Amino acid sequence: MALHLGDTAPDFTAPSTIGDLSFHDWAGDSWVVLFSHPADFTPVCTTELGRVGQLQNEWDARGVKPIALSVDSAEDHHAWRPQIEAFGSTTVTYPIIADQDKAVAELYDMIHPGEGDTSSVRSVFIIDPAKKIRLTLTYPKSIGRNFDEILRVVDALQTTDRAAVSTPVDWRQGEKIIVPPTVSTEDARERFDDVEEHLPYLRTARVRAGS
Ligand code: BEZ
């Protein structure tokens, strides 16, 4: 069954590099970036898992727990990890799920047979502390993802949740947000700084620190 934005992320238990993992319990009150990759000991995946390790301080700063998944064994994940760390000049402290029976990959629709075989494609799920799916992305096996973009979306989700606003194209933390159409310009000037009316339906503003 396809998962949609707003659905509760299905719970599961699975072996991983930190032992048997119960997904919802492990997630706790954190945001989660669950991402699958096709196979261990492969080039694109090695660059991706290294990048996620390099960004550990960025995940921590946003209250995000990353977790990887492939259909390889935990033994393979453990043997591969030093190679990822050496290539990426980093450490991989986040767990890697060993989904050998493909149960999680099937639950999250991570297997796309048109992409070559029955390993998982490069799926990403951003899951909020209420366990709701807030973003899904699927990349083909041959294309490495941009985890800076995933951090950018986490920033946008956390900002739009906090301030009840939207974000414009290519928005980055600290830049001006979009005032919702339901808020009058007068009310916007009470709530936000630097309100600008570009078009009657397009107003930008700056969220105040701490709000
Ligand atoms: C890779 O990580 O390089 C890769 C893995 C599976 C299929 C294609 C590429």
Describe the structure.
The chain is α+β, with helices and mostly antiparallel strands and 211 residues long. The chain has two domains: 13-144, Glutaredoxin; 164-206, Antioxidant, Horf6, Chain A, domain 2 (2-Layer Sandwich). The chain contains seven helices and ten strands. It has helices at 23-27, 43-54, 56-61, 74-88, 103-107, 147-163, 185-191; strands spanning 13-14, 21-22, 31-36, 64-70, 96-98, 122-127, 133-139, 177-178, 193-199, 202-206. The strands form three sheets. It has a five-stranded mixed sheet. The longest helix has 17 residues, at 147-163. It starts with 12 loop residues before the first strand and ends in a 5-residue tail after the last strand. The mean pLDDT is 97. Bound molecules: benzoic acid. Residues 38-39, 42-45, 141-142 line the site of benzoic acid.
